[in-house]
Design goal:
With 378 residues, the protein is an alpha/beta fold. It folds into two domains: 222 residues, Medium-chain alcohol dehydrogenases, catalytic domain (Quinone Oxidoreductase, Chain A, domain 1); 143 residues, Rossmann fold (3-Layer(aba) Sandwich). The strands form six sheets. Strands 3, 6, 9, 12, 13, 20 and 21 form a seven-stranded mixed sheet that branches. Helix 9 links the parallel strand 17 and strand 18. It starts with a strand and ends with a strand.
Length: 378
Amino acid sequence: MTGVAAAVMTGPGAVELREFPRPEPEPGAVVLDMRLSGICGTDKHTFRGETLQYAGTPHERQIGYPLICGHENVGVIAAIGGADAVPDGAGRPLRVGDRVVPAANVTCGRCWYCLTGQPYYLCERMEDYGNSLGCADPPHLFGGWAEQMYLLPGTALHRVPDAVPDELAVLTEPLAVTHGIDTARRLRRPSFGESVVVVGVGPLGLCHLIKARLVGCGRLIAIDLLPSRLALAEDLGATLALRADELEAGQLAERVRAHTDGRGADLVIDASGVPETFPTCLRLVRTGGVLVEAGAFVDLGPVGVNPAADICTRNVTVLGIGGELLSDYGPALELLARSHDRLPVDRIVSHRLPLSRAGEAVELAQRDGAMKVVLGGR
């Protein structure tokens, strides 16, 4: 191959290596030489053919194929269209050779949500790298599962601190999705979150668990189906690990209450990615607590909830998180820079595979023994 190699998802369960022309950036656009791109839960849904995203919002859409996935990215600027530099998230100049994490989405800047300072993933005309932006039309390379990635004008870029290795920088986007923890603390009080439950400790849940530990929670409970994920959660500070396939919902609630002085958890984070866990999570949170729903980006159907008994009479706050905040990329990178020596990088990023094995990598990412699986190199 003499062009740019990319792993293309051509349909459910089908990924193949293809070659594309090397892109020339238009004014304001940026081309990255990719270092690493993560496999996200959304990518797993797309691989399984579960492609209805942002249901019930102005930008509800059905993701189409062919597609170069990959919106958790770290790379080095290879070219800038029409200029010698572009600004980073803090307004400082970025030039060719700088290592960056690009934002996962591009907004229109003109709709009501953009003009009123709403979370940027609510933009009515938002485009997502590796999701809504397919690869059928030039310049094709709109996802990170490639040797190079094309970034449209207006894409926010964030400089990676020298202390942060690629294997942690690739976690910036999912770590920026953990802003529900910060919102829960502001809603209640600064010390809120002494007890935290994370349901689903795959990569997104693990980022929530790491964030909860680093901001000082006390009792930290991890719930998952896979033993390897629970073992890593314990190594990262979980004070209780529970197998979801060995305990029914009522038993999980009993174990959580026993670990939290009979009350239930201050904060419950549902990062499972499946709707069935939501009613269970409502049973785990204490009266007056907060439930953060952070994993339901793809519509997999409804579940039964009693608004009176489950939410209102117990004064439970439910926060729906539709994505990361643009303003949280910088703090996420700063947190990684401060804490990188305390994080077992080789266990958090458990597997690195080349683009030619992308289909195998997606399958691997759904098995016991895998945490964050990343792609890099041909």
